[in-house]
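REVIEWER CHECKLIST
Item 1: Sequence provided? yes
Item 2: Single chain? yes
Item 3: Sequence as submitted:
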Amino acid sequence: MAKIRFEPDGIEAEVPAGTTILEAARKAGAQVGSACGGVCACSTCHVYVKEGLTALSSASEREEDIMDKAFDVQANSRLGCQSRMEEDRCYVVEITRESRQAFIDEHPELRPAKPRPPSPGGTHPGADRERD
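Item 4: Structure as written out by the authors:
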């Protein structure tokens, strides 16, 4: 089994070799975006592979073309939907800020509740003072 840890959350999962990073993220509950559903049509599953990069499947020309849409591409950047963990070893993946935001946009029910504004006619500072 391959082991994967998603940073910065420290979420971990064990998956069979051949599993993609995106599939592992879904199993683990890690917040990796997938606006296209994982068919290599967007770049929302962009991650940084901190450990295990050479043990992943090779990037296809299609993946490289789609990666041009991603923000802050680095030498260890991969698309989670295209990166298969080919060896039974440990992998460490950092979820990009854009990927996490894409995940939240795809799952609005997981957004933190916004504070409610005060109701009209409510109390205000000094309301309990007597008027002269």
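Item 5: Key structural point noted by reviewer: The chain is about 20% helix and 20% strand.
Item 6: Recommendation: ____
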